[in-house]
Design goal:
Length: about 475
């Protein structure tokens, strides 16, 4: 039968159960579903009352109840090999471990003649047997839950699961099952833009043989599954397959369910068949789902294109943003470099101005010192006397004269030339004497630099002397 898509939701916790003394039971809808699932998987090995007792003992946890059922089933087989079971006894209605209750044989088998030693030995034997049975039950429960019943006859998934079905039901040709976990199958279906078909198998279900031989082995169905779907299968006796059964709300087995991995967060059930499955129904379901998948594929492709465009737009915006940041950074660096350059130029201008000011002040000071020195020298200079007359021509073209003694040295002539502007007779002539100068004869032209020689020795009497400024290099 074909089921409409339905929203997936977590299974609610079990509700309270009340059983009357007459055996009438009032169960919630969830508990009735758990009961139906338990009896379906166990092939109704227990009646309703025994099944309810098992589920109640496990707080209505179907996985624990199945594990407990198979563990106790193996334990009862071992007990039957040792001694015949009591007629009509329910394997799970009685305590699982010896020593938890006393049978009629144990009660009436003891005689008054039993010795205290034999009683102590019997108690010790029962304790040891109880410990042994506890260990066996725990190991059986763990092994059954993780590896399934029948010693792992059905493989976990993929090729092993396919070979196990072929061996168990004699079907040589079956579709290819995805070799991996359910989550990996979902990822591959989403990447390949295909639907995911989940086949949940139960070796205790009454229709498992017909589904494997008539549906899965059907050439048309097998070809359609291999070419257009991702097929994942598992035995509900195993943990992963049972979790998938709870997720898709499978209540009968075998279960043939078509899933659409719309996104990473969303998985839709778009069709399902449970229990007695016919080949025609499976073909119709697959055809309808393929038509619906075309619409979903177009939506998914459009979403992928939109995501690519959005990613490209984000990358472009990020590039533009980074380029703007880089441009702002460069502009900031250029402004900072310009600011540093202007600051350096301002500092250099201030430094040059400071040095020029200092030089000006130094020159002014030197000039003042020189002027004071020349004024002092002019005040000390004696009145003109002697017979040797010298005429001094200044750089400005002005001429001054003075008489010296023939024995006066050239140094005395230099002293007179340096302070000539401050002599009383020249005070109103505006004479300026350079800071540094040299005296020369006009003909023949020669520098006068022998300071210790006299005017007479240099034959300067009656001559014109030139005063030339000395320029600094």
């Amino acid at each position: 039968m074909y089921h409409k898509p339905r929203d997936l939701h977590p299974v609610a916790g079990p509700a309270a159960v009340s059983i009357s003394a007459t055996g009438l039971m009032e169960l919630s809808e969830e508990q009735r579903a758990s009961l139906a699932l338990f009896r379906e998987v166990t092939a109704e090995a227990r009646d309703e009352a025994a099944s309810i007792e098992v589920l109640k003992s496990c707080n209505w946890n179907v996985e624990q109840a199945l594990s407990l059922h198979w563990a106790s089933h193996d334990e009862d087989h071992g007990a039957q090999a040792r001694a015949p079971a009591a007629a009509g006894a329910n394997p799970l209605s009685a305590p699982l471990l010896p020593g938890h209750g006393r049978s009629s044989a144990a009660t009436h088998g003891s005689t008054a003649g039993d010795s205290p030693g034999s009683m102590a030995y019997g108690l010790f034997s029962r304790i040891a047997q109880g410990i042994k049975q506890i260990g066996f039950s725990v190991l059986s429960l763990v092994y059954t839950f993780f590896f399934g019943t029948g010693g792992g006859a059905l493989g976990s998934s993929g090729a092993a699961f396919r070979r196990a079905l072929q061996t168990s039901y004699g079907t040589p040709a079956l579709p290819e099952f995805h070799d991996g976990s359910f989550s990996q199958a979902v990822t591959r279906a989403r990447q390949d833009l295909k639907l995911l078909v989940v086949y949940l198998h139960s070796e205790h279900a009454r229709h498992s043989q017909s589904v494997c031989s008539d549906v899965l082995a059907n050439e048309v169905i097998r070809t359609v599954l291999d070419e257009n779907f991702i097929l994942w299968g598992g035995d509900v006796a195993r943990m992963e397959a049972h979790q998938v059964a709870r997720m898709i709300h499978a209540r009968q087995f075998p279960s043939f369910c078509v899933l659409l991995p719309a996104s990473v967060e969303e998985i839709r059930v778009i069709g399902a068949l449970h229990g007695q499955i016919e080949a025609e129904g499976a073909q119709a379901l697959l055809a309808a789902c393929m038509e619906e998948m075309e619409t979903h594929r177009a939506e998914i492709v459009a979403q992928q294109v939109q995501r690519v465009e959005d990613r490209y737009l984000r990358e472009q915006q990020d590039r533009e943003y980074q380029e703007a940041l880089e441009m702002d950074r460069r502009r900031a660096e250029e402004r900072e470099a310009q600011r540093r350059q202007e600051e350096e130029e301002r500092r250099q201008a201030e430094e040059e101005q400071r040095k020029a000011q200092e030089e000006m002040e130094r020159q002014l000071k030197l000039q003042q010192e020189l002027e004071a020195k020349r004024r002092s020298l002019a005040a000390q200079l004696q009145s003109a006397s002697g017979t040797a007359r010298l005429a001094l021509r200044l750089p400005s073209g002005q001429r001054v004269e003075r008489k010296f003694e023939p024995t006066a040295t050239l140094q005395e002539v230099y002293d007179w030339a340096s302070c000539v502007a401050f002599l009383p007779e020249n005070s109103d002539k505006g004479i300026e004497i350079p800071e540094r100068f040299v005296l020369k004869t006009s003909f023949p032209a020669r520098d006068l630099d022998e300071m210790d020689r006299t005017v007479d020795e240099l034959k300067l009497s009656g001559t014109n002397i030139l005063l030339a400024a000395i320029e600094d290099d």
